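Hi W., the fe (ii) ion complex you wanted:
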Amino acid sequence: MPLDTMICLGIESTAHTFGVGIMDGEEVLSNVTDMYIPSKGGIHPREAAEHHSKVCDKVLDRALEEAGIGKEEIDLVAFSRGPGMPPCLRTGAVFARSLALSLDVPIVGVNHCIAHIEIGKLKTGAEDPVTLYVSGGNTQVIALSKGKYRVFGEVLDTPVGNALDKFGREAGLEHPGGPKVEKLASRGSKYIELPYSVKGMDMSFSGLMTEAVRKLDSEKKEDVCYSLQETMFAMLTEAVERAMAHAGKNEVLLTGGVAANRRLQEMLETMCRERNAEFYTVPHELAGDNGTMMAWLGILKYRSTGADDLEETGFIQNWRTDEVDVTWTE
Ligand code: ATP
Ligand code: FE2
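Structure:
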């Protein structure tokens, strides 16, 4: 079968989101997601997994319907094998295996973080970027070097999205806090000094968050949100700029749920312009967690190294980005 017309169904289940997406070669046929929203506080892995097993059949049906294809047209099943929360990963892996078995098609397990990068490259045209992957559970600065996606920098404590959500809870904002903080920040104007901590290309946000929460007692909420964003995003921009210099890259790719933030986009774009580099943001519907990016990385991986053995499709909880051989780029 010509691989560029291969239909791959991808499954995402690493954390909050259960997603099924279908790609026909480079074309997105569908992208359906269903998100578990914790009733209160943070995510409970077991509850999230229960959510995923409750919605999986429905999400699959909707993805097929949106794609306008029948199950029997699927040539390949791909799923997010890690990193993530074990109960969630297990649910996705079991679902993927039983689907591949019942359809009698090959299966490939793919790395969640790398899927974010590859769908981003496909949709934006970025060729060899420094990727800033910022979501609830991740904050990484990644670039391809000697056949692997190397993590040049990452957060040492709380990831950006999670930090914004936690701050949001303290500030009495609805979950998820990220978008609400952005909205309030756009009405703030006074810069309040907050702890700034970048070490090399690694970042730490916990001191900044604690201080920002403390400032809520004495300052306007809008100004605290504004200052929080300015400080956090300046840290991210500094780390990305340093990675570009180290790795010798002149493109930046922004992805993950936090990529929706306009101020973050603007700061990275300005930095890129000053360096004569290109800046790309992954389209919103494909920047958050989704199954479509699993389908695309599934096709890339299958093209270069073929399918996985069914017996070797167990999930990998702490699957690091730089453990994967990138065999599909020239
Ligand atoms: P992952 O498993 O990759 O860590 P996730 O489960 O956190 O992903 P995403 O959809 O990638 O899911 O990201 C959700 C996060 O993005 C939340 O923390 C949310 O607050 C944040 N977010 C969404 N929109 C914005 C925004 N406009 N500004 C800042 N943060 C945002
Ligand atoms: Fe993600």
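The radius of gyration is 20 Å.

W.
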